[in-house]
Each structure stands twice: as structure tokens, then as C-alpha cells.
Write a structure and sequence with these properties.
It is a single chain. The protein is an alpha/beta fold and 439 residues long. It folds into two domains: 163 residues, Aspartate Aminotransferase, domain 1; 263 residues, 3-Layer(aba) Sandwich (Aspartate Aminotransferase, domain 2), CATH 3.40.640.10. It is built from 15 helices and 15 strands. A seven-stranded mixed β-sheet has the order 4-10-9-8-7-5-6, sandwiched between helices. A four-stranded mixed β-sheet has the order 1-2-3-13. Strand 14 and strand 15 form a beta hairpin. It is globular, with a radius of gyration of 22 Å. The mean pLDDT is 96. The protein binds pyridoxal-5'-phosphate. The site of pyridoxal-5'-phosphate has 14 residues, from helix 5.
Length: 439
Amino acid sequence: MNPDLRQASIEYLIRYGGDRFENLFSSAKGSVVIDDTGREILDFTSGQMCATIGHNHPAILAAMNEAGSQALHMFSGMIPEVVAELGLTLAQDWLPEPLKKSLFINTGSESNEAALRMAKLYTGGYEVLAVGGSWHGVTSGAASASFASDRRGYGPPVPGVYVIPEPYAYRPLIPGANEQESAMACLEFGLKMYDMQSRGSPAAIIVEPIISAGGVLVPPKCFMEGLRRAADERGMLLIFDEAQTAFGRLGETFGAVYHGVVPDIMTTSKTMGGGLPIAATITTDGIEHEVHEKGFTFYTSHVSDPLMAHVGLAVLNTIRNENLIDKAREKGAYLRSGLEELQQRHEVIGDVRGVGLLLGVELVRDRKSRSPHHELGELTTSRCFELGLSMNIRRRPERGAVWRIAPPLTVSNDEIDRALSILDQALKECVDALAKPIP
Ligand SMILES: Cc1ncc(COP(=O)(O)O)c(C=O)c1O
């Protein structure tokens, strides 16, 4: 450990929000990250939900090498061969029809920015309907359509964004209603409010197939079908933000496939690069043709960069070659049953939810009141880290206290067992510590 570097990180780096650790980190491999003391920590967030095939997978390193021997970057108007190959692979081997054409950029925020620009140009409208608890990124358009957090203090959002309350089965909008009824009430209520306020200029509905930052909320299929209908009825394009759900994490190729609903535009990012920044905005032939005719531009310095396309192809091939979609289903069921077993022994686990290897565990003061236990969430997350497990906690007062657990799809049963035993120990210790009277 180099104390000068720890000090430098405090003195010279801008703090950008979210969790920050005292330790610095030196390397990562598979499901593990290693800190500056040489300690191995299980990474049950796959980095920033990106390293689905495990950190530093040899296929990614080989792809980077290959790019190094060919080209890393080019003039944005020159389409590298490997970018054409990635477009072809996506269209022929992965995408649900009629999705077909891709724009390759770098981050999730950018992919949603491009999707919103496309929808506005296509429809001639500007109004965007988003879902409560959503997170689509930090650039203007994407941030304006994000409702999980971080809206305050940055001035007016892009005009014309409206919100539908999020379906939240554990905390239904209508107390006592079942999951479907409550979700449909959210939809009906949100659409009614939107229709009332609309200036007659609809453009898009944007939604995550699983509302992740909002607390790993899984909308029922009827809600997603309802969004499809609502978009069609109003002449809006339906955008699925699949930053976290594309390419296997759910035990299906995409959230769209899981729900059985195909959007007009799909955005993919995090899980496409396995830890490197490649994202895609994907649409149909018809929409691409029309926006092109209308002069669509999204010309960035790194659009169609060959380095990232090599990496993207390597990630997609690895997911297929190592059967990682099936593994996500199997390991997800294994991890989930372990979490449910913990729930039987720990009253503070109110809810275990999610799909495949994108799981959420909500901590409550007691199961009757379902009152979120933020203190415990914070304490257990820190204790887990000390014991060698990193996972993410949503601890905004308005969002409940929810652990987000999303290890790489390559995680082993042994690693899952270790994580579960750390969670068990941390919960026991922290519940006891909070129960002790203050001397
Ligand atoms: C669903 C979703 N969309 C978009 C983004 C933004 O992606 P990026 O941070 O790569 O800009 C995120 C990031 O957390 C996300 O979870």
C-alpha cells in the first residue's frame, strides 16, 4: 500500500458521487478485485455492472492485441471492417426482429442520447415519457429522463419529459393490489397525467426492462406490453435501455426477449464491452432510413472505433462459446435460493427479487411495516467489504435499502457460497450491533 497515492487520490481527484472506498485498487481477475493491500475482494457488482464475462478475460485481452496490430482508432467517416462485422453479428445472431441496424458509440448515456435524438427526429415531436426510479445516464437528455436520483441542483431539465410511477411489487401503488393490478394502475395513472399535460408533440417512451438503480424492480410483462400499446397509440417510439440486461445477465439474450416485447430502439452498453466502453443504439431498417433522410447525425470522435468493436465481438463470442446465458440462469437460481434461505433466518430481509444474475435484496426494519432499513444497509455493505465482498447498496431514502447483486456470469458456486456466508455473517453482526443499547 502506498500512502502517498491514497493521499493523491484525495488531493487531486474530483469526487464524482456514489460509493468511494478508502483503499485504492490495483488489479482485477474473474470475479475478484484486488486492493492496494493485496486483499482479494469478491466483486458482486461486476465492476460497474459491466464485466459480465469476468474481469480481464483472455478473449478481451486477445481482442485488444488484435486491434493493436490493426488499428485502434480511425476518422469517424471511415467504417472499419470489424465494425461492419459487429453490426452483422448482432443483426444475424442476436437481435429480435425487426431490430437490425446499429450505431456504435461508447457509453450508456450516449446510447440513450442517440436514441432520444433519433425518436425526436423520426416523430417530429419532443415529449418523452420515462418511468420512476429509472437511470439512463448523465448527459442532458439521458439525465432529464432519469428519475432514480441526482436531479437537484443542475438547473432546468430538457423540456417535455414526463414520468410514469414505477411498478414496485413489494411496495404497490395501490395497497393490497396484486402485482399486475398495481403495475397497470401505475401505467394508467402515468398515461392519464401525460395525456393531460401533453403539448401534442409525443416522441418516445423510454424504459429499462428491469429498473435497476431504482431498486431492481421487475415490471410484469403486462406493464411492458402496456407501454408498447401506449407508444403505438400515441405515435411514439418505444426505447428499451438494456445497459444492464442485454447479452445474457437475465438468462435470456435481452430484456426484450424476457418480456416478449420488442422495442423500436434498443440501447446496449455496459455488458457489451465486458469492462471496456462500447455501446450501441439499435433500430429497425425503416426508422434508420427515415431518420437518415431527415439528416440524422450523431458524429462523435469515437463513433465506430475499431478497438471497441474488436472487444465487443470478443465479448459476444465468449458469451456464446462459454454458454454464459444458460449459466446466468443456473447460477442466478443458485444464488437466489441462497438469498431466500438467508431471508428465512433474517427478519430484516424483506424481499428477494430480480431475474437471472441481476438480483435485489431489500432490507427492512420489520416485515410488517416494510420500513426501509437504511442504517443496516449501510453498515452491512461496509462490513461485507471488510469481510471480502463488494456489492452495491441503493440507500436513497426514497428508494428503500436494496442490495444490488450482479456478479460476473462466470461466477463459480464456490464464490457464491463464500459471498452468501459473508452476507450471513455481516447481517448477524450488524443486526446485533444496532440492537445494543448505546452506553
Ligand atoms: C440502465 C442504465 N442506462 C444507462 C446508464 C448510463 O451508462 P453510462 O454510465 O455508461 O453512461 C446506466 C449506468 O449506470 C444504466 O444503469
